Input
Amino acid sequence: MTSIAAARTAISGARAAGHERDRMLALQGAMAALADAEHDIEGGSDPGSARAAALANGAVAAFADGCRGGAPYEGLCEYAPDAGTIFAALADEAGPAVVLGSFTGAHIPAGEGGLAAQAPRYLIERMPSASGSLLYRVSALGFGSAATTQVALQAYYLKLPAAGTPGGPGIRVGWREIGNWREGR
Output
């Protein structure tokens, strides 16, 4: 009986460690997506593009309701007071979310084995800001090796005014994990 109890405890511990490893993989993917979105906001791999200009100046026309702007403004969203709208768009595999590296050239391995089931993705919301600076909220979704293991993060990215322009250099001003985010969709 003692041997059976010890074996069950060991198996349960191994399962718990596996689930935690998968969750950490998803968290790291979501963090990578936040960093990629910040690089995108700062001009990405093509600082002269229309997308880079829209993000640098906060061009209202580039940010669509429901995040459904066309090329080159994919994943750019007008502020949504209802977080469920953003979470639904982020979770939609065929939706408007930007896959890591789409505008920056970054790459993260994904696929089988111990890798994430799929590359992380993100959305960028233009937030109301009274200070003359630009404020963006980035929502990112990372995956574990099982596609059902997901971690959602949100961060705020502030671009301070510089030399009479609204969007100078930026800085992340905070981030948080969205607990039970699937229930908010």
